[in-house]
Design brief:
The structure holds 2 protein chains of 2 kinds. Chain A has a domain at 76-126: Cytochrome c oxidase, subunit Vb (Cytochrome C Oxidase, Chain F), CATH 2.60.11.10. Chain A contains 4 helices and 5 strands; from the N terminus they run H-H-H-H-E-E-E-E-E. Chain A has helices spanning 2-12, 22-25, 37-40, 43-53; strands spanning 76-80, 84-89, 99-104, 109-110, 116-121. In chain B, helix 4 runs antiparallel to helix 7 and helix 5 packs antiparallel against helix 6 (191-223). The chains are: A alpha+beta, B mainly alpha. The interface between A and B is large, with 36 and 37 residues. Chain A: Zn(2+) binds at residues 89, 91, 111, 113.
Chain lengths: 132, 261
């Protein structure tokens, strides 16, 4: 009797009521699907997913940058979407500390170890090229 | 439109942390008060407030992830580590109860009769209800894993059915334990045996209850289409918590029930 009542309610309940799965147990066929991950995602998560799907492994540009030549004429270029960015230079492999400094757009800077860095406009997630 | 260029989630101002802290403090002071004055009023009020505050906090977390999309890969990774660290802290919590159990039981003192279980304590037969409890929890671990695979394979029927079975098994375990507590010939006041036994199994029961609610909420969120096949951190966390509860029970069963018999 109780079973029949629960069954009757479950088969007629709108989607949000009895969201504990009673509808599947009482014979209503749930679709054999799940939301497509990209379709379900929204906001920042979706942007990141789309960027990764397009082949960008580092959509937020937070990966460590391997230093290049690093002379005054050829500084290592660090991308940034803002006017300034804090970076850390690992001067040599056996460094016991990271040398942090703030870079400003258009002003090349030299680390104590002699390596030059320059801040350049980046291609981060809010860059117009990613807005589809 | 998201304007941030970084993957971190800088949370909006929220009242829930401070409120949760206050309500938990109220609950704990109330619990001590209940032990001293037999009045559970402050404890019950604190418990109710804690439930309200934590529900609203976690409701906000699920809104921020599913509806606002703040949970980037990095944030998800941080949450995974957070859950692992929390479960580790719970393991240490139970470790302390096992320490107190072994302190009393490995070298029982004169007052207990130099034996364990102490003289006069009729220990529960581990091959009756406790064995059923063990099988219920182990089987529920299997069902919850099956449900997880159902989600990954986009099979709603398997997911819903098996999660429901897991939740029901959790409730079955709790009711069996409640019956055992009711029928038990000894209480928490009965020597260090009763103290350590009910402290450890009691907290374990509370954890089973919380784990069951967590699994149920995960199931409800799935039916509200908040999960996709590769982003379902709430479900994963609830399953990890459930496995932890299961493992703790195995230790409890082995030492507090079987070894003590």
């Amino acid at each position: 009797m109780v079973f029949a009542v629960i069954r009757a309610v479950a088969q007629r309940a709108p989607c949000n009521a009895l969201t504990i799965g009673a509808r599947t147990l009482f014979g209503v066929k749930m679709p054999k699907y799940g939301p497509d991950p990209l379709d379900l995602a929204t906001g920042l998560e979706k942007k990141e997913m789309m960027a990764r799907a397009a082949g960008n492994d580092d959509p937020f540009e937070i990966a460590a940058v391997k230093r290049g030549v690093g002379t005054r004429e050829q500084p290592t270029e660090i991308p940034s979407m803002a006017d300034s960015r804090i970076i850390g230079c690992i001067c040599n492999e056996d460094s016991l500390y990271v040398a942090y400094m703030t870079l400003h757009m258009g002003e090349p800077k030299r680390c104590e170890c002699g390596h030059w860095f320059n801040l350049v406009p980046g291609n981060g997630i809010t860059h117009p090229s990613w807005i589809l | 439109m998201i304007n941030q260029n970084h993957p971190f989630h800088l949370v909006f101002n929220s009242p829930w942390p401070i409120f949760t802290g206050s309500s938990v403090l109220t609950m704990l002071i109330g619990t001590v008060n209940w032990m001293c004055t037999k009045s559970p009023t402050m404890m019950n009020m604190g418990l109710l407030l804690t439930i309200f505050n934590t529900s609203q906090w976690w409701r906000d977390v699920s809104r921020e992830s599913s509806y606002q999309g703040y949970h980037s890969n990095l944030v998800m990774n941080g949450l995974r580590w957070g859950m692992i660290l929390f479960i580790t802290s719970e393991i240490l919590f139970f470790f302390s109860f096992f320490w107190s159990f072994f302190h009393s039981s490995l070298a029982p003192n004169l007052e207990l009769g130099l034996m364990w279980p102490p003289l006069g304590i009729a220990a529960i037969n581990p091959f009756q209800v406790p064995l059923l409890n063990t099988s219920v929890l182990l089987a529920s671990g299997v069902f919850v894993t099956w449900a997880h695979h159902g989600l990954i394979e986009q099979n709603n029927k398997i997911m819903n059915t098996n999660m429901m079975v897991t939740v029901v098994m959790g409730l079955y375990f709790t009711s069996l334990q409640a019956w055992e507590y009711w029928e038990s010939s000894y209480s928490m006041s009965d020597s260090s045996f009763g103290s350590t036994f009910f402290l450890a199994t009691g907290f374990h029961g509370l954890h089973v209850l919380v784990g069951t609610i967590f699994l149920l909420v995960s199931l409800m969120r799935h039916n509200l289409n908040m999960y996709s096949l590769n982003h379902h951190l709430g479900l994963e966390a609830s399953i990890w918590y459930w496995h932890f509860v299961d493992v703790v029970w195995l230790f409890l069963y082995s030492f507090l029930y079987w070894w003590s018999y």
